């Protein structure tokens, strides 16, 4: 499961205890590719797109995220920079989590840390698979079947 519901009620409650409600106007940038993340979000309402920079072009949207989905995962692996940018495509309400505080909670309780790592890992696995499928569609030659 990719939503916060993948965590047990206890672990979800511990993480939610540190959240704060935030809002983003349409067009607001949550973060830029290459930034060191200070926060991450769970979308409550609205739509956020993830994009990548392409030299000489506008950023390319690679994924759209909606209710319940995690925005930002690089915080889990400091000092890893964000691999994408993120923009509010509609007005967005979200729960915001301080990255440093979340890491402290994970380090203080290995079971909690393991659960959160597993959740973030499942989000990453899903996004990698989705990116792979988009790349296959983008670069596939019409009428050619990929070898097995």
Which features does this protein show?
33% helix; RmlC-like_jellyroll; 148 residues; cNMP-bd_dom_sf; alpha+beta; 3 helices; cNMP-bd_dom
Q: What is the helix content? A: 25-40%
How are strands sequenced across the largest beta sheet? 1-8-3-6
Strand content: 25-35%
Number of separate strands: 8
Which fold does the CATH topology refer to?
Answer: Jelly Rolls
Query: What gap, in angstroms, lies between the N and C termini?
Result: 28 Å
Element order: H for helix, E for strand: HEEEEEEEEHH
Shape: globular
Known CATH architecture: Sandwich
Q: Helical segment tally?
A: 3
CATH C-level: Mainly Beta
Estimate the mean pLDDT confidence: 89
For the CA atoms, what is the radius of gyration? 16 Å
Biggest β-sheet, characterized? 4 strands, antiparallel
Low-confidence stretches: none
Domain module tally:
1
Can you say what the CATH homologous superfamily is? Jelly Rolls
**Helix-strand makeup class:** alpha+beta
Protein name: Regulator protein
InterPro entries: cNMP-bd_dom, cNMP-bd_dom_sf, RmlC-like_jellyroll
Organism: Streptomyces clavuligerus
